[in-house]
Give the backbone structure.
Amino acid sequence: MTIHIPGLSPLDRRSFLFTASGLGAAVLTGSAQGAEGRPPVTSPRATSGDRVAEPDWEERLTVTVGPKDAQLVGSDDKVLQAAVDYVARLGGGTVKILPGVYKTRSAVHLASRVRIVGSGPDSVIIKEPSHSAKLAEDSDWYDQEVTLAAGHGFRVGDAVCLRTKNADNGSNEVLKRTFVARSGNRFKLDKGLRKNLWLSGKPTASALHALFEGEHVENVVIENLTLDGNRENNENFNGNYGGCVFMQDCNNITLRNVTTRNYNGDGISWQICHDVVVENCHSHDNADLGLHPGSGSQRPVIVGNKLERNGIGVFFCWGVKYGLCEKNLIEANTKYGVSIGHCDTDNLIRNNDILRSGRVGVLFRVDERGKNFAPHRNTVADNRIIDSGAEKGVAVDLQGKLESITIRGNDIRETRGAGERVGIQIGKQIKDLRLEDNEIQGFSTQVSDNRE
C-alpha cells in the first residue's frame, strides 16, 4: 500500500520526514541542552522505541482517499478519518486526498506524524449545514448521554456542540462531543459530560464543529486543499472551540497552501500550540479571524499568506510570544488588519501589506489588568499600512500600558483624503516607544502623541 507521490521533491520529502519523525538538527548534532560533547548521530537506524533519530526513508506509507479510483472510496468525514487513523496506526505517513467534494458532519481528527495532502483547489472539504435542538431531559455532569427533543435531525457519528448556562453563576458552558449510539431520542456520547446540562440552563445541542481538529498531537502537515465552512448555512461558532482548522495543545504543526474560507467563525485557530507554521495559505471571507494564534502559543510563524475579508486578519490572542508575521497580504478585513494584546510579547510583524482595514491597520489592544499584561517588546517594521478605517480611522493605534515597542521603516499612507484620520496614535501610558524612519502621508494628523 506504499505509493510514491508525484511532484514531491526530495527536499519536500526530507522536510516532511524531519517533521514526521521529530528529528531536529540540535538533536542530531548532539547540541541539545545537557548533551554537549556527545557524539553526533551520523548513521541512524530504526531502533525500537527511538522516536528522535531515524533514517531518512525514501518512501513511507501513503493511502489515497477519493470519491472513486482510490484505496479508500468515499466523500465524507468518515472515509477521511479512516485514512488518518489507518496511517497513524502504522506509525505515520501520508493521506492523499484526491479531487472531489467531501461533506462533513463531524471534524476530521488529526493524528501525530500524519501528513494530509490534497490535490490543490480540486480537493474541497465542506461543512454540512448546522442545526440545533433543545435537550428534553436533565443530564448530570457524570452522565454520558443526553436526550434531545423530537425532530432534532442528528445521527450516530455526528459531532455536537452542547451549550448551557451554569446554574450557579450564569456563565456559558460549552462541550464538544460525538454521538456514538442512540435509542430513540437518547444519544450516547463519546465522553462523559463533566458539566451539568440541566433544563433550567436551557441546554441545546448544535451541529457545530471544525473541519479539521487536532488535540494533543504533534508533527502534522496539512497541504494543498480547500476547507469551506459553508458560512451562509451555519451558525457562528467561537474560535476558541472551532474554525475551518482548530488545534488545541499541539506541537510542530505546518499548514501550507491551504485555503480556509467561509467559516462562520475563524479560518485557522490554534490554542496553546507551539511551533505552528502557516505558510502560503489563503484565509478569506470568514466571519471572525483569518488566523488566530491563540492563548499561550509559542513561536508561531505566519509567512506568505493572503488574509482577506475576515473580521480580523491576524489576531494575536493571549500570551503569544516570539512569533513572526511576515510577507503576508492582509487586506479588506472588516475590523483590524493585525490585533495584538494580552501578554503577547517579543513578536515581529514585518514586511506585510496591511490594506483597507475596516477600523485600524495595526491595533495594540488595551488590557485593563495593568502593565504586566500588556503586549511589550513587539516590533512593527517595513510594512505597508494603507487606507485604514473610515473618516476617523487610525493606521497604527497604540493603547494601554505598553513598553518597548518599535515602529520602524513603515510606509503608512492614506489615499482617500485626510478627513480626521491619524497615522500613528499613541496612548497616554506608552513608555519607551521607538518611532524610526516611517513614511507617513495623507493624514490630517501624522502622529497623535497623547503621552502624559
Observations:
- The chain has three helices and 39 strands.
- Residues 157 and 179 are 5 Å apart (CA to CA).
